[in-house]
Write a structure and sequence with these properties.
single chain, about 130 residues, mainly alpha, Arc Repressor Mutant, subunit A, Penicillinase repressor fold, 2 domains, 3 strands
């Protein structure tokens, strides 16, 4: 399996638009992002080209325009990002991450219930 490329915050906005609907032209990506960011179409094209160089996006020529699609899934990217985050900050371990959030009162009652449910599923071998 090829490595998942590093994707910047701005590039991730473009990827989200492609994960939602593909293929899309640069104009369609810019329109989809329009409410979230006030980017010019040239900015979107620059980000698409960066993503192409990283092999995160693929392109298909359709007449005079280009149609872009994600070359990686959102799940692949999310797995890579979360693993990198855990490795960098918590030595690859989840427990210290949860402890950090609990010490800083960032876990809601709903979060705690969800964690208990997930731990129960792990204990049951699911």
């Amino acid at each position: 399996m090829k490595p998942i490329p590093q994707i910047s915050e701005a590039e991730s906005v473009v990827m989200e638009a492609l994960w939602t609907h593909s293929p899309r032209s640069a104009e369609e990506v810019a329109a989809a992002i329009g409410d979230e960011r006030a980017w010019q179409e040239s900015t979107v094209k620059t980000l698409l080209n960066r993503l192409l160089r990283k092999n995160a996006v693929k392109v298909l020529k359709d007449g005079r325009r280009y149609l872009y699609s994600a070359a990686i899934t959102r799940e692949q990217w999310l797995h890579s990002e979360s693993k990198g985050f855990l490795d960098r900050l918590f030595d690859g371990r989840v427990a210290p991450l949860v402890a950090h959030f609990s010490r800083h009162r960032k876990l809601s009652k709903a979060d705690l219930e969800e964690l208990k449910r997930l731990i129960g599923e792990l204990d049951d071998g699911k």
